[in-house]
Amino acid sequence: MKQAAVHRLPMAHPGDLSALADLIERGVVDPSGIVAVMGKTEGNGGVNDFTRGFFAQSLMLLLARHLGRDPAKLAREIPCVFSGGTEGVLTPHYLVLCRSGTSESPRPGGALAIGVSFSEPMPAEHIGRRVHIESVAAAVRAAIRQASIDDPQQVHFVQVKCPCVTAARAQAALARGKTPLTTDSRRSMAYARAAGAFGVALALGDVDPKLIDDAALLRDFSLYSSRASISSGVEVDCNEVIVFGQSESWSGPLRIAHRPMSDALDIGAVFGVLGDLDIAAAPQVTPADAGRISGVLVKCEPDRRGMIRGNRHTMLDDTDIDAQRHIRGALGGLVASVLGDGRVFVSGGAEHQGPDGGGLIAVIARN
Amino acid sequence: MKQAAVHRLPMAHPGDLSALADLIERGVVDPSGIVAVMGKTEGNGGVNDFTRGFFAQSLMLLLARHLGRDPAKLAREIPCVFSGGTEGVLTPHYLVLCRSGTSESPRPGGALAIGVSFSEPMPAEHIGRRVHIESVAAAVRAAIRQASIDDPQQVHFVQVKCPCVTAARAQAALARGKTPLTTDSRRSMAYARAAGAFGVALALGDVDPKLIDDAALLRDFSLYSSRASISSGVEVDCNEVIVFGQSESWSGPLRIAHRPMSDALDIGAVFGVLGDLDIAAAPQVTPADAGRISGVLVKCEPDRRGMIRGNRHTMLDDTDIDAQRHIRGALGGLVASVLGDGRVFVSGGAEHQGPDGGGLIAVIARN
Amino acid sequence: MKQAAVHRLPMAHPGDLSALADLIERGVVDPSGIVAVMGKTEGNGGVNDFTRGFFAQSLMLLLARHLGRDPAKLAREIPCVFSGGTEGVLTPHYLVLCRSGTSESPRPGGALAIGVSFSEPMPAEHIGRRVHIESVAAAVRAAIRQASIDDPQQVHFVQVKCPCVTAARAQAALARGKTPLTTDSRRSMAYARAAGAFGVALALGDVDPKLIDDAALLRDFSLYSSRASISSGVEVDCNEVIVFGQSESWSGPLRIAHRPMSDALDIGAVFGVLGDLDIAAAPQVTPADAGRISGVLVKCEPDRRGMIRGNRHTMLDDTDIDAQRHIRGALGGLVASVLGDGRVFVSGGAEHQGPDGGGLIAVIARN
Amino acid sequence: MKQAAVHRLPMAHPGDLSALADLIERGVVDPSGIVAVMGKTEGNGGVNDFTRGFFAQSLMLLLARHLGRDPAKLAREIPCVFSGGTEGVLTPHYLVLCRSGTSESPRPGGALAIGVSFSEPMPAEHIGRRVHIESVAAAVRAAIRQASIDDPQQVHFVQVKCPCVTAARAQAALARGKTPLTTDSRRSMAYARAAGAFGVALALGDVDPKLIDDAALLRDFSLYSSRASISSGVEVDCNEVIVFGQSESWSGPLRIAHRPMSDALDIGAVFGVLGDLDIAAAPQVTPADAGRISGVLVKCEPDRRGMIRGNRHTMLDDTDIDAQRHIRGALGGLVASVLGDGRVFVSGGAEHQGPDGGGLIAVIARN
Predict the structure, then answer these.
(1) Beta partners for D218?
(2) Distances, alpha carbon B242 to alpha carbons B80, B149, D44, in Å
(3) What pLDDT is stored for residue B94 in this prediction?
(4) ipTM of the complex, rounded to two decimals
(5) What one-character DSSP code corresponds to residue D126?
(6) What is the pTM of this model?
(7) C44-74 pLDDT, tens per residue?
(8) C88 and D333 in contact by Cβ < 8 A?
(9) Is the pLDDT of residue D235 over 80?
(10) pLDDT at C171 (0 to 100)
(11) Which of the residues D117, D185, D229, D231 is marked catalytic?
(12) Is the bond leading into D283 cis (omega within 30 degrees of zero)?
């Protein structure tokens, strides 16, 4: 049997790995058991957010030192998926995802299972196109296999980090005679997220494969997966995948549940997913129950129709603050206030990830 | 007997008064009964937010046309208190506060009462100093009298708009041989809000008058009023006051309640104030109950100690997004998700307005 | 003979018309002779910049009061074209453009001539499409006729303000069964500027009419007019045009000259256009010569290829500051330092307005 | 004899040291001769700018690998002073400053000399106070000695990087029972820069030592050094100093000159300093002469009185864009357009560094 552990750790700045270093030094975390790291850094979450790259470099240096490995090679084995932007009450933090063997017996319904994979590199001209979708789908299937999850319905959350088109990468593609879908970096991030979501939907069977077509990207928002969470950023050049689910090949106290969020005010989804894990909020989770929670993962977006429940919102027309920063701050306020805890992974840009104008929430908790 | 009415109206942009124009034309609102207007515009809420001035100019033009009055004089009689910033799920909207006579009999506990007043103009050198505090206190007392509220304990919410020091006003003061407390416009807004809060506390008896001293402004945050909501902006040159309370001299179906918020995650305060008005949220207010709500007023701030319940927040160290924009977005997400409605007046900068790091919420609803 | 006058005036905020009011009251400006007003306000220059609408409302109120006219009708006769954004050393200011009769005799080469026109309203679905281009071209031709300029080569600067697609307008179009070219407001502003530039090029003969096609918009940047300056904003619903040129039907001391700018570092174009007007800069214009200058109009853009003379720039990948704000600040620094004066109209978004990655500069000066 | 070399290198992102790695691998740069590195990264230049730390970490890793040293120790020996913010036409780049022995004979007037030093760590409570000033002065004197510059008048430029007070550091100081001068991180950066400038002025004799007092910091702007360039940032905990001057103990082709800038439009200073180095601009430096230039260092600030040559600027009242970002973009446009080159180190926050409202420029060029 395998067993997953999730350590939720603070950072003082994007280069601060001291909390993990301490756990390794104290023997709490075996560095060879770390399969992935994900979290929130305090950048702007946009094309020019280098906090993610800074964290990743610092993490790989730490692990390389402990494992006697080359940091560049480790970076191709351990997904380090960060979302920039700790707007409002959110706090910079990271989840260290570990796998170990255990002699525990299986539990009914299984336990939290984690698998990872990396695709081949994606040149700029492929981003947001069919080849991108299929690359993600293949990587997701590989991660499901690695997690020993037999039934795709037992997958609860798939995190993918996709590369985007920067001005420099676009120029490089053009110099090779290739045409990126867009040279606008912000738009390329949206296309990359959409393609990633379609890839997850294809792998999980959330959308009829006949409808999966790159012409539908950023157009037909009735097509989505409520288990896909896609980020895009300048710091990766291939698709990195982390799959979370339940598997009877895994044991231990951790479970995961998820719910779609119908819109940016869907507080019912938060109460719902907590209820799935037998955690009450009345209206806030008690400190004792909050202590059972190991990770909270939220995906959301500013409704593209410019309205939420009949009221105009101003996120899409704001030239000063990026719409993704707006929506992360709002959802952060919503979710953190129910939990009484700002350690929430909230990522914007939920194109085809949950219902149009909404998103999804997943929670990992101990029994 | 007097009776209050509150109309909560949308705007398409900061110069759009069409919703109010329509109500006046249809005879629903008698323009001579309008005592104050407050709301949220989609500016940045900072020194260079001119959406508030644009709305006020447009409002006064509309009312002047209907009342056959000079708009400049109306602006000295009808407070028009706006908070810029509709971050996240918040929506631009305004509350038109009206007073009329009624033949209804008094109700036990009274009904919503509203009073307004204007102080003398505040030159830049007085802002954030003792004379500012006392000017606000006198204006609050005048508004309480106008509202026929006998007991200061029956006051539930006092909105004050104070002027701030802009670069131009600071230069003008220096040219007169006067020294403003600060020439940093952002800091002057904080001092103005603090002085306004002390003025309210003095008028309501929320703080021992012996402790009310301008040396304590922005220093001793144990001194506060949970009924003070202070904005500061470039578009006013005197202190404008709107007092909300319960009075047996008023009748009609409207009531008001308020609660302090202990910190930026205090979702319990939202449930609490709704409960005070016999409105349930499980976890969201039903559409039927939401229809009873006429106005939601929230004040909040980014905790100056840099932590919320033990987790670091990044609002104060962000050079790209003003801390007040951050906190409005987070509290907007919290409150709007409980109500299922983004029409929430959330104003940042809660210095001495509610507990340190927290703020307050007031709700106006029909029985 | 007609004669043009240009008054360059400061504003304390976007609703401040006191400088013009003073000139009218002192008889310096005849309000009935004002043909257009253009300038810089201190907004962000983006979709949610309401400083332009605030100024326009304030201007029309002032003129309506003096002329005994309806402000809404005046707004359809007097173009009020503002560019938001006074980044860096730029200062909020406006040019009041006046026309009067004169008994002066014609001068060789003529004198500054000004003409204006308005197109029909542009619904969201037309913006950035062929019908938009032709609407602008027709309006430019009308303004040239009004200015009594016989030869299109005598036109030196054409300012057009085009509407854009906001979230609300896009929804309205979709509700009518129409499809806007884009529902992304930022992109719609770029398309609107491009269509406006093609319209100017078509009217002036700067581009072979056979090449003028909406498929080339934002694609073939070898097509441009060095005399087109296009803004786009939420505050207009039709295309407003102001044409500046030289005409022998006009007299008086004012002349205009223009130069293309090859890129964002083309300080030579600034010296060149000053030289065309017999003004030296060594390296800065003397205060005496600066006093001869009545207006400086600059259009520029962040090079879309991400490089300026071989060095990477970061304007296009910045999620915190809009690229147009970046480039206005840089060109403002360049031009204002040569002039020793921050009263420069610098407008970003120079798609098809001057060479790719560059723009243009026009200067109005007295002999 | 010693000889200085300056390599001006591009970076593709803040973790990209490939250009230096290439020079080391090709033997052009001897890593053991590197005495300091300074440059511009594409962060926001504010408290939450982590691009500087990311670059520094990457640099020290590269050097440690080549030198077989511990990167943490190297970081205490080689100042790595970066200014965040490549607004407008500025480009991310860095100067690698090297020292080697040479058999060349001395030149009249000497040649470029470089010296460095580090102060002891500065706890938050000392920042912006007397002890901070003296710590900087001592470090500057040490760097002058290291550079073998005998006469302080031969110093042309002193770069200091000072720590600032972050929310976390302020809390730590308070927990120790110490009171920082301010807990507002933005203000602490201003105080740190001011204290650094006083330290330089004290060491160079630019201000009468009797007038050097922390009460004058950010108050008496008639006190300044035109040779001080101070940055402040979260990524350092002590004062790091780089001194540039002319010394007859150094040989080689490099020279340095500097000029104060009287205000943000002082293009004459740019022409002046180029003239000091026998470089003409008419109005732009020729490509051949531009090739002689090895480094351009500019310090500037938004005039705190809100006016530039009688015109109001809006930098200080902007809630969306930090005033330092504004001024860097404007000065970048000014200086880069004269040079025809965006590789300019422009740093904002010039309190007491050059005339009030102005700053300074230094240029390093080959004969």
Answers:
(1) none
(2) 9, 13, 40
(3) 98
(4) 0.95
(5) G
(6) 0.95
(7) 999 899 999 999 999 999 999 999 999 999 9
(8) yes
(9) no
(10) 87
(11) D231
(12) yes
